[in-house]
Amino acid sequence: MKRFLAIGILLGLIGYTVYTQVWVNHKEEAVNSSVDAQTNPFNPNEKIGTVINKGDLLNKVAPDFTLETLTGEKVTLSELKGKKVFINFWASWCPPCRDEMPEIQHFFEQHPDVVVLAVDLRNTEKSDEAVEKYITENEYSFPVLLDRTGQVGESYKVLTLPTSYFINTKGEVQYKFIGPLTLEKMKELANTLN
């Protein structure tokens, strides 16, 4: 009797293992076949990881804003007209944003001709201290602006983090990029700004 019980348990374990493996594979295939990994889930017309050079804001004057930095200074976008500006919308809890931050730091150090503004969606963060701690611990020196209400993010139609905008010297949005940028891509886009 014990022998039959042991065989039954063994067969049950084998059956369960086979069932779960088939189910997991089936689930992965269903997900991979129904969703394009590059499609922005919030806007199917946009692809994550590609340069977007047409749309509502593109080739128009960038929506103006005034935001405070972590140190309490105020920055107004329209006062930067005549300069190339790279705006990056991010949050400290966002893994792709965290991956991108060292690249932004390198870009900031290597391209003093481009104004870098890292706009933290502060309304999604725990506290100012959490943002400041992240920036300080990683020794980032580019300006971090706090979008406390999320209104600036809304005006720039930010649905996915990170999202970046490249503003030309006329104050117009020339490029939008959804997803983390590499240093090379930042340089390429900045070098083609008017």
Helices and strands, with pairings:
Blueprint: H1 2-34, E1 51-52, E2 66-69, E3 74-76, E4 84-90, H2 95-110, E5 114-120, H3 128-137, E6 144-146, H4 151-155, E7 163-167, E8 173-178, H5 183-191
Parallel strand pairs: 4-5, 5-6
Antiparallel strand pairs: 1-8, 2-3, 2-6, 4-7, 7-8
Q: Can you give a write-up of this model?
A:
With about 190 residues, this protein is an alpha+beta fold. It folds into two domains: about 1-35; about 50-190, Glutaredoxin (3-Layer(aba) Sandwich), CATH 3.40.30.10. The protein is built from five helices and eight strands, in the order αββββαβαβαββα. The chain has helices spanning about 1-35, 95-110, 130-135, 150-155, 185-190, and strands at about 50, 65-70, 75, 85-90, 115-120, 145, 165, 175-180. Helix 2 links the parallel strand 4 and strand 5 (about 115-120). The relative contact order is 0.18. Mean pLDDT is about 80; it is low at about 10-35.
Provide key terms for this protein:
194 residues, alpha+beta, 5 helices, Glutaredoxin, 2 domains, 8 strands, eight-stranded mixed beta sheet
Examine the coordinates and then state which fold CATH places here, giving the name of the CATH topology of the largest domain. Answer: Glutaredoxin
What's the N-to-C terminus distance?
84 Å
Number of strands: 8
Q: Radius of gyration in whole Å, from Cα?
A: 23 Å
Average of the residue pLDDT scores? 82
CATH C-level class of the largest domain is Alpha Beta
Q: In which range does the helix fraction lie?
A: 25-40%
Task: Give unreliable regions as ranges.
Answer: 8-37
Order of helices and strands: HEEEEHEHEHEEH
Number of helices: 5
CATH superfamily descriptor of the largest domain: Glutaredoxin
What proportion strand? 15-25%
Backbone shape: globular
Structural class: alpha+beta
CATH architecture of the largest domain: 3-Layer(aba) Sandwich
Number of domains: 2
Strand order of the largest sheet: 1-8-7-4-5-6-2-3
The largest sheet, given as strand count, sense and whether it forms a barrel, is: 8 strands, mixed
GO molecular function, one term: oxidoreductase activity
InterPro entries: AhpC/TSA (IPR000866), Thioredoxin-like_sf (IPR036249), Thioredoxin_CS (IPR017937), Thioredoxin_domain (IPR013766), Thioredoxin_ResA/DsbE_sf (IPR050553)
Protein name: TlpA family protein disulfide reductase
Keywords: Disulfide bond
